[in-house]
Amino acid sequence: MMMCVVLIPWRGWVKKVLTIDCVESDYYRVEENIFCWSDEMLGPAEKTLDNLCAGDDISKGFGVRKVLAAVDDCYLLSPANKYTVASNWYTAAELKEMGYQVLSPGHSITPIEINGKKYDRSEVEKAIKDLEPIE
């Protein structure tokens, strides 16, 4: 199943997330109602820990884990930076509790080492961008 976003005109063009459960040659059916939807009516849903698919990447700092399989809201992850090996199953709630975040497609995590520990360079730069230099 795949999540998508639809703009619903009869509700004042409200965005609603739907779950596609059937793909035909010229339309889609969704779980939430009986209507048929075309390509022009749907857009991709924002990727969250609740709607991961196989192939998505997540991280909680340094090291990227790949989603190898997704069943309902349970995900089989690879170990950090070893994308062809299976590790453990986690629920979306467990991933949130552990501080994981979804990485955008084409992401790049560059490590930076501080006092012998590795950190995501972009996270460090974001954390220190507003600091005032000391003379």
Determine Rg (CA atoms, Å). 19 Å
Beta-strand segment tally? 12
Amount of beta strand: 35-45%
The number of helical segments is 2
> Helix- and strand-based class?
mainly beta
End-to-end span in angstroms?
A: 57 Å
Describe the sheet with the most strands. Answer: 5 strands, antiparallel
* Helix fraction bin: 10-25%
Question: Averaging pLDDT over every residue, what do you get?
Answer: 80
Shape: elongated
Order of helices and strands: EEEEEEEEEHEEEH
- State the low-pLDDT regions, or none: none
Strand order of the largest sheet: 4-3-2-1-5
Features:
135 residues; mainly beta; 5-stranded antiparallel β-sheet; 2 helices; 12 strands; 11% helix; 39% strand; elongated
